[in-house]
C-alpha cells in the first residue's frame, strides 16, 4: 500500500493528484471544491482479500466523487483546452519539420535521434524554439513560419467540434471526402483533427468502484459502496470523446468551406457540430423606452474568459441580431451571438452566430 500514496494504480486516489489540484486551481483562479485535508484524516489502511489497501470512511464518498469531478473540470477548462491543444499541435509540427535540420552540439544529432543519447538530449531545451525562429536556413522556413504564427497568436482556426464516439481511423478521410464533394480547395494537410478523451481517470469505468470504505462501527472491515447508494445525481457515464476540427488556412472562404464540410459530415453521422470559442451576448427587452424610440436593447455581456478579452462592442442596422467585437485593437471584427433573455447558455460550449427571429433592421 505505500506505493498507493503517491501513484495509486488501483483507483487513482493519490497525493500526486491532490498536489496539482491545489496548485493548478490556485494559479488558474478556479475554485477547488475537493477537500484533501479532510480526506487524509479519514484515510485508513485495511486488509482486503489478504492485501492491505488505503480505505476511506464511508461518509467521505461524496468528497471523493468531487475529487474526480475536479479532475474532469481541470482537463476540460485547462489541460485539454482547445487553444492549449492547438498550440501543442503546431509546436509538434514545427519540431517534426525541423527534425533533421536542428543538430545538437557535440555529436550533431537530429531532434529525434537524441532519445538514445542522454548528453545530447539534455541540450534540447526551450531555446530550440528561438534557434528556429532566429535562423535564416531555408530548410527551417516551414518550422519558422509555424512558430511565428504561435508567437503572434495566429493559431489554426477551430471550425467546430462534436461530442460523439467515432471511428478515428477513417475520420479524416471521410471529412476530406466531404471537402472534395463541395469543391473545396482545402486538402488533407490543411486540416487538423484533435481527438480529446475526457474521463475520470479510468477510461469508461467509475474509479469509486475500486475504492473500499469502512464505517465508524467497523473500522477494520472494508466494504463496497455502490453509486446508486450515494445519490441519483451522480454521472451515468464516466467518459466522453470530443473531436475538434481545425483549419490551417485563415481566409474566410476556406473557413466557410471547412464549416460546410463539417456540417455535411455531421448530418451524415446524425450528430451536431458545435461552434467553439465564440462569445455570447444576452439581450434584454427594454422597459420605459423613450418616446422617440421604437425599441431599446439592454445588452449584458456574459462573464466568460473569452468575453473578458474582447473590446469595441458595436451593433448596426445593416446587420440585425449581430454584435461585432475585436479581440485586439488591430484585430479583424468578428460576429458574436445574441440570445434572448432566459435562453439557456453554456459559457463553456458557445454556439454559432444565429440571429434571433423577430429582431429586424427597423428594431
TrEMBL record:
User: Mind telling me what this protein is named?
Assistant: SAM domain and HD domain-containing protein 1
Q: Which GO terms describe its molecular function?
A: dGTPase activity
Which species does this protein come from?
Magallana gigas
Q: Which InterPro entries match?
A: dGTPase-like
Q: Name one GO biological process term.
A: dGTP catabolic process
- Cross-referenced Gene3D superfamilies: 3.30.70.2760, Hypothetical protein af1432
Recorded GO CC terms: nucleus
Amino acid at each position: 500500500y505505500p506505493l498507493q500514496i503517491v501513484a495509486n494504480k488501483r483507483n487513482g486516489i493519490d497525493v500526486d493528484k491532490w498536489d496539482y489540484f491545489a496548485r493548478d486551481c490556485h494559479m488558474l483562479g478556479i475554485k477547488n471544491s475537493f477537500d484533501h485535508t479532510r480526506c487524509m484524516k479519514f484515510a485508513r489502511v485495511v486488509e482486503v482479500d489478504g492485501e492491505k489497501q488505503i480505505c476511506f470512511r464511508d461518509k467521505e464518498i461524496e468528497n471523493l466523487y468531487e475529487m474526480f469531478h475536479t479532475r474532469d473540470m481541470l482537463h476540460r477548462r485547462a489541460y485539454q483546452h482547445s487553444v492549449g491543444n492547438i498550440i501543442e499541435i503546431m509546436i509538434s509540427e514545427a519540431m517534426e519539420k525541423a527534425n533533421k535540420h536542428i543538430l545538437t552540439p557535440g555529436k550533431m544529432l537530429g531532434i529525434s535521434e537524441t532519445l538514445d543519447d542522454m548528453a545530447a538530449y539534455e541540450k534540447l531545451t526551450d531555446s530550440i524554439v528561438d534557434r528556429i525562429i532566429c535562423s535564416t536556413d531555408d530548410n527551417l522556413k516551414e518550422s519558422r513560419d509555424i512558430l511565428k504564427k504561435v508567437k503572434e497568436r495566429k493559431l489554426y482556426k477551430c471550425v467546430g467540434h462534436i461530442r460523439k464516439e467515432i471511428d478515428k481511423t477513417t475520420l479524416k478521410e471521410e471529412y476530406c471526402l466531404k471537402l472534395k464533394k463541395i469543391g473545396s480547395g482545402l486538402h488533407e494537410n490543411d486540416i487538423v483533427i484533435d481527438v480529446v478523451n475526457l474521463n475520470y481517470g479510468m477510461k469508461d469505468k467509475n474509479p469509486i468502484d475500486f475504492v473500499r470504505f469502512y464505517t465508524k462501527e467497523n473500522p477494520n472491515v472494508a466494504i463496497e459502496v455502490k453509486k446508486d447508494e450515494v445519490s441519483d445525481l451522480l454521472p451515468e457515464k464516466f467518459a466522453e470523446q470530443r473531436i475538434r476540427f481545425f483549419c490551417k488556412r485563415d481566409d474566410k472562404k476556406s473557413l466557410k468551406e471547412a464549416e460546410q464540410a463539417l456540417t455535411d459530415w455531421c448530418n451524415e453521422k446524425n450528430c451536431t457540430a458545435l461552434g467553439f470559442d465564440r462569445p455570447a451576448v444576452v439581450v434584454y427587452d427594454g422597459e420605459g423606452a423613450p418616446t422617440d424610440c421604437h425599441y431599446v436593447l439592454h445588452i449584458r455581456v456574459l462573464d466568460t474568459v473569452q468575453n473578458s478579452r474582447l473590446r469595441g462592442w458595436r451593433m448596426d442596422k445593416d446587420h440585425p441580431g449581430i454584435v461585432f467585437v475585436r479581440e485586439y485593437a488591430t484585430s479583424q471584427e468578428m460576429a458574436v451571438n445574441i440570445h434572448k433573455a432566459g435562453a439557456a447558455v453554456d459559457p463553456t460550449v458557445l454556439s454559432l452566430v444565429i440571429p434571433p427571429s423577430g429582431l429586424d433592421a427597423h428594431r
